[in-house]
Write a structure and sequence with these properties.
mainly alpha
């Protein structure tokens, strides 16, 4: 897409002048010429897969070292599981997407949820803390996973734009705050008594309303882009 040389606004390919500052577009866009050759994409994909394998090997080294140290110096106390679980979560978050030819965000979120939940379950079993796992850790993991599922689904299907996507994400933050406070209250006092989450919601709701109104006013968006150079 062409950009205005004066104010930097992104322009339509067929535009002859900038819609904001009326600066003429001097360079015509050439049609039908791809920005990169096909081989470039294939090389990039191969490099990404190679990089993923390299990172996986690097991540495996400290796990093997911890396994050996644990078995030699602390037999019967398997603290190495904590290292394994943390490494699995890191692998799922950062390295797993590199192994996929096509991005699948829903699958990625689900696998992160499974690995993180299993890691927390392992810690709970080791510390005899199943109560905090069932009342705090598990509900929070499920809530975060469902919120991400909903946001990704809406973004992929509806294409709401940046402003509306931000509004949806902020709504998810409000819901998450209520869940966090509710689960912690129930764990500590065996009763749900919400307080600070209302303050967070009251602070974020005006921002959400402002973003929604702004998303429906193209003229105001252009003025802000022009003034703020964003």
């Amino acid at each position: 897409m062409p950009y205005c040389v004066k104010c930097g606004v992104e322009l339509d390919k067929s535009a002859k002048k900038c819609v904001l500052c009326n600066t003429e577009i001097m360079i015509e866009q050439q049609e039908g010429i791809p920005p990169y050759p096909k081989e470039k994409a294939e090389d990039t994909q191969m490099n990404t897969a190679y990089f993923a394998i390299l990172l996986s090997i690097i991540l495996t080294i400290p796990n093997v070292a911890c396994l050996v140290i644990n078995l030699i110096y602390s037999p019967g106390i398997y603290w190495m599981y904590y290292v394994f679980g943390g490494s699995l979560v890191l692998w799922m978050i950062f390295i797993f997407p590199m192994t996929m030819k096509k991005k699948k965000p829903l699958l990625h979120v689900f696998l992160i949820f499974i690995s993180a939940t299993l890691y927390l379950l392992l810690i709970a079993l080791a510390l005899s803390g199943m109560r905090w796992f069932l009342t705090i850790a598990l509900p929070l993991c499920i809530t975060i996973m469902m919120l991400l599922f909903i946001i990704i689904f809406i973004v992929n299907k509806k294409k709401p734009g940046k402003l509306k996507t931000t509004s949806i994400s902020l709504i998810g933050v409000i819901i998450l705050c209520f869940v966090i406070e509710g689960t912690v209250d129930y764990f500590v006092n065996s009763i749900i008594s919400l307080s600070w989450s209302y303050i967070v919601a009251a602070s974020i709701v005006p921002v959400i309303l402002a973003l929604i109104l702004l998303s429906g006013n193209k003229k105001l968006q252009n003025e802000l882009i022009k003034k703020l150079h964003i």
